[in-house]
Each structure stands twice: as structure tokens, then as C-alpha cells.
């Protein structure tokens, strides 16, 4: 099912996004999208790069397949003009939806695409999953990214999780101080 999300005060191209649920056929494209948004030289074209903090991969085929077809999990794909420009994962975890694997093509960052994708994920969490909150983990060292989420209503919980050092499925750290911070957004009761 494709859906257009009306959003005001954004780059007009961002509001042209069409959303659909990813299929297993999308997995290779989604792996490439996530990698391009966070790792390597291509990621430096956008502002979400982690290239100064981590080398190696951000995700792999097995992780994206699990996000696409796992129980309680859904990958949302954002397309513009028939081309995939963004994605994110929502996983139903009982009292909240976990938001992750969020990526916007580096050349499309900064024009409101991320805001529209996040709004769609929140809509799906509220209306389709029926949860009262969205939770995520962000590298604590990404102050700019955390500030972006805070401006969209997410709250820093102060809860941290250690980075999985030694597990190259998550990348090769370039520093020894990485950790994740948990952010949460509770929806207003209607």
C-alpha cells in the first residue's frame, strides 16, 4: 500500500514521497542505502555520516532481511519518482515501537525528507501498531543527530547501552568511547 504524507514547511520534493512496506526483493537496495547514508566516503555528502566514528559496515543482508520479514517488524520505504530515497524500520515491542535503520540518501538529506519519513513512522506506530511511544538508540557522540530528534519531540532518557565492540557486524570503531543513548517520544493521548 502506498501512501503520501502531507507535511507543511518542507522542501516541496520531500512532500512528494510515497511510502510502502519493503519486501525481500528490496533488501540489496536497502543495504546499499543504509551503508551510503552512514559509512564510507559516499556518506560524507550528507550530514548523517558516522565515517569519523566507525569504519566497516553499518548493516548487512541478514539484518535487513530480519527487519523486512521478522515477527513484529516492518521496513518502510520512501520513494520519490519511483526511486527509493529513504527507509526506516519499526519493530513492535509491546509498550513501544523501536525505530531504527533510518536512512536518507546522502544527496537527498537536508531538504525535509527525514522529517517526512519520521512523521510517517510515527503515524504507523500510533495508528497501525497502536503503541503509545517510539523508542530508539542513537550514538551518544552524535550530538547533532540527537539534537535533530529532540527538536522533533524525542526525549533523552539518560539511559545508555554499550557499543558492541568486537562485533564487526556493527562496524569497526575509530574511538574507544562509543555508546548508545536511548531516546523516546510518547504520543499524546487522544
From TrEMBL:
This is GNAT family N-acetyltransferase. The keyword Ribonucleoprotein does not apply. The lineage of its organism: Bacteria, Bacillati, Actinomycetota, Actinomycetes, Catenulisporales. The keyword Signal does not apply. Residues 17-189 form the N-acetyltransferase domain. It comes from the Bacteria. InterPro entries: Acyl_CoA_acyltransferase, Bact_Acetyltransf, GNAT_dom. Gene3D superfamilies: 3.40.630.30. Keywords: Acyltransferase, Transferase.
